[in-house]
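Slide 14.
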Amino acid sequence: MRLLTKLSFFLWFSFLAGPLWAADALPLAGEWRCRLDPQDTGITAHWFATTLPQTVRLPGSLAENGLGDPVSLQTKWTATIYDSSWFYNPRLAKYRQPDNFKIPFWLTPNTYYVGPAWYQKTIEVPAAWRGRRLLLYLERAHYATRVWVDNAEVGQQVSLLAPHQYELTGLLSPGSHTLTVRVDNRLETLNVGPDSHSVSDHIQGNWNGLIGRLELQAGPPVFLQSVQVYPDLAHHAARVKLFVKNTTAKSLTGTVQLAAQAYNTTTAHQVTPIQADFVAKPGESLVELTLPMGEAAQLWDEFHPALYRLTATLRPRKGAADEQQVSFGMREIKAVGNRLVVNGRPVFLRGDLHNGEFPLTGYPAMDVPAWTRVLTVLKNYGFNHIRFHSWCPPEAAFTAADQLGFYLQPEGPSWPNHGTSLGDGRPIDQFIYDETTRMAAAYGNHASYCMLSAGNEPAGRNQAKYLADFVKFWQTRDSRRVYTGASVAMSWPLVPENEYMIKSGARGLPWAKERPNSTFDYRAAIEKFPMPYVTHEMGQWCVFPDFKEIDQYTGVYKARNLELFREDLADHGMADQAEAFLQASGKLQLLCYKNEIEATLRTPGLAGFQLLGLQDFPGQGTALVGVLNPFFREKDYVTAAQYRRFCQPTVPLARLPKFVFTNDETFEAAAELYHYGPQALPQTTLTWTVKTANGSLVAQGQFAPTAIPTGTNTLLSTVRLPLASITKATQLTLEIAVPGSAIANDWNFWVYPAQLPTLPKSEVYYCTRLDAKAQQVLAKGGRVLLNAAGQVVKGKEVAMSFTPVFWNTSWFKMRPPHVTGFVADPTHPALADFPTEAHSDLQWWEIVNQAQVMHLEDFPAGFRPIVQPIDTWFLNRRLALILEARVGPGRLLVSSANLAPADNAQRPAARQLYYSLLRYAQSARFNPVTAVDLSVVKDLFETPSREQFSTFTKGSPDELKPQRK
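Slide 15: predicted structure.
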């Protein structure tokens, strides 16, 4: 493997310049000629010497210009389809037709093209540019370019993340010329992995085109190729490296001047300029200067994103001057023990993954306002950090992050696990070095560029050594950020050389086996690691689709996946429940994110988390894991202010051993304050209250005034509340707050009577099987309460947990759980003695976790159960946990959750629900509206579902399977 030497590193920096800011520029945006080259014959046929027949508008993509092939079953996708078997269920055949083609795996582009495409434009070079240096600047291409001027080939470049720049000085004279650019987006050009977010159909799409600034630039023959600024906080200075290029045949002398001024701050600061002589020999030269910033230098961080604009002016004693402006921040980031420290202050990364979600264009936004909008949304939700999964954003993203105060981790544009690997001598090995060097040259001055990873979850026999060498390489060459080998899950090898690590061990909710509490944290997962530990891809909790989102897809991508799910829901008779499913599953999703984020905030020594995610991931089977959609817009079940209560620089925390109590107990919650604000808080008094669901005050108090240091958690004391005064089933809320501020957090808990009232004897027949006596009671017009836990056959294949679907069931081949919460009618009289909202909350855990559900495929259309689990949107089965029906002249109430009285001694919520159901069944209000045949009810316990995943996972005819290259 060839690594960059010190000389080659210098050459990379000098060659990979930013734009010539002081140069004249001829914009090339507008109409271009175009021709697609699917057979790759254009080079041998000398298309650069012909007039291309079609027209497109650039910047833009082929899809935006309506070019490419219609999407069909024969489309050769770039991305991997991990499991398409369920898509071949016969009932989905209508979505595999040419006139109604809908794929569920990702968003659908209007057209699709992978291969070479030729772009051509006639340009007029001004007469005033004679004798000047000329440069073609293509801000972002996707992703291999080859350039001709008239009939002369200029060269070729491959980059997924940096501008493609071509020297045209000797090829262009004043007058008319033909510029031809061939763009090739085939993965064979350089295989970075088909699921890398830089190229994958799962996210931004494998687009073909030219975007961002397209221009021809003219500048002097001796110029600043690159200006790189290295803040030195200890000496109140900035070290500046100026890469000078002399394209003449003679050495030249002159002066270089540096001046800097603060901006993006309320405090003005003008830095005293400095000047020095230089000698520029033909070729490249390096001039290094130290710019004193003074004691008044303002530091950049998330709270005070003060920036400086450095102007470097190169004045040869003969010839034209050159000037370049760069933005930088006085900021340093280091790993100190297990902490990440910015400017000497510990930070906790509250991070989100940006996966390349651009649902209108399929390619990255190239303007600062677009990125400012996205980052402002993230900041409003309490985040201070973004990881760009296996891709690097354009300069506009860094500029916006600089101004708003965000810590960014771009990555090498590779997920080298599917289709390629690291450390095995493949071209990707050198390409990662080349690309990250291009990143340092193009974006290295940005204060927000704080962290770097080689990519995501690599494969390779020698990956650990490769990644260790990668970290060491960058540690010795650029001190402006911290480095890690890769973002990985638990099974990946540890790289001790990492300055920080991103690993998945410190995540998840232990609720599959443990009663919910808020005392757990992740200290055991991180304690053996000596460097800062940032949690990898935390969350991934799903919500039901928001079909209102479909109309937002007004660009080149359409949400055909959501359309399919919506139509399938209607085919199952539940179209009218779509919004209820969204709201109920959204509340459960939010509950899971709140508890998992709080667990990270409680964990001593954790350096932060990277959430997957705040917004949906529209690919990989459609992973609806966000409280926002891919447009970074709300879904209306949580606001930014509500989310910030548990995700912001200062968050009250409470360690509750459980959330369900009886009134013979004392409620206890140990309180603490997570504080990573800009400075310590002086003597601070926090208050606590306990209120009922309707807001009535039950108890209140305050904690002793305490000094709150920043960069840690401060223990307060314990809230204690005897519960004897709570005489009926009640939901209560504990809130801890800093009065007069937006710092507050809350937790629901439930109190049930330790001794329930004795119900009068009644005619209700309680049973655990639909036995002969139950059928006789129903036939005689009697009442039956059936506790059917463990007896369900029709629906046995559906796995229900308290927590929702993880990522999505398609991507993991229907791995359980399959259910994403439930909907219930809180006003239904069956639940009169069991306070609940319309969605699952923590009091339901002991009832629904690992419970069986009933599949109502043969029940009457429109039948609605009292408690209805929400199935995975890939199958949309009509399910029930609690239902009632009129069976003949009788009345039947059924629960497939275990409510057996004998099992409820240590399950107060289950005992209370049983009481509520039995009391209802005894009452005159027990009068089911819908009649169901006894045979249909019996089938629940005798006959397997006709429609279940296992019946169509055997594979399908090859000619029907979506193809990929």
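Speaker note: Residues 765-952 form one domain.
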